[in-house]
Design brief:
With about 200 residues, this protein is mostly helical. It has two domains: about 150 residues; about 35 residues. The protein contains ten helices and two strands. Strands 1-2 form a two-stranded parallel sheet. Helix 1 crosses helix 8, helix 6 runs antiparallel to helix 8 and helix 8 crosses helix 9. It is elongated and about 85 Å long. The chain starts with 7 loop residues before the first strand and ends with a helix.
Length: about 200
């Protein structure tokens, strides 16, 4: 999709929307018989707002598993639902698959690194969530080019920092392995030369 055709949304308005989230969306997600927010119903309502009829399979990932591992992901899902209910996202007409990808994959990645309430309380985390959702849906912040949006997201994204750190560690490990292999080879050649003399 060329940049001129990419849909745009007001970053300031969306970050303000997160800061002003109603307390209902911050309530405890229902896991087993505990909690208030029933995430499958909330996600289903969002998909219908966007013009899609969710199947039971679409909603299964939002039932949740063990509270210890799922609570933060489901809490962040609730926050993302509030964000995606904004008129700018509805007007963008994202596919149900794209919306579910945001709510399941993207939210899962982000929830693995940051507490859900951080995306409401902290200004930089709010911006990160908005920018990550926009990028995942192929949208741009109003007035930014694709390169500017990508650069800013890379600068503030905990998910991207973790990926860069992992890549850096892998590169360091590979360089160390190559260096050690060369040292062994040089030592073997030196020993071979010594025994021939």
């Amino acid at each position: 999709m060329n940049q001129a055709a990419m849909k745009q949304a007001d970053l300031a308005q969306l970050t303000r929307r997160l800061a002003d989230i109603p307390a209902d969306f911050l309530a405890e997600p229902r896991i087993a018989e505990h909690g208030e927010i029933v995430l499958p119903a909330l996600v289903g309502d969002l998909l219908r707002m966007h013009g899609w009829q969710p199947s039971p399979d679409d909603l299964t990932p939002f039932v949740g598993g063990p509270a210890r591992t799922e609570r933060n992901r489901l809490a962040l899902t609730s926050i993302a639902v509030w964000l995606l209910a904004d008129a700018s996202f509805i007007a963008a007409q994202a596919s149900s698959a794209a919306l579910l990808d945001v709510l399941h994959q993207l939210v899962g990645e982000m929830a693995g690194l940051t507490a859900a309430d951080g995306f409401v309380i902290d200004a930089e985390r709010r911006e990160e969530l908005v920018r990550a959702v926009l990028a995942r849906l192929g949208m741009l912040p109003l007035g930014e080019t694709a390169a500017q949006a990508a650069d800013r997201l890379a600068a503030i994204s905990a998910v991207q920092r973790r990926a860069l750190l992992a890549a850096s560690r892998a590169a360091e490990k590979r360089a160390r392995e190559v260096r050690e292999a060369l040292e062994r080879q040089l030592a073997a050649e030196s020993a071979d030369k010594w025994t021939r003399e």
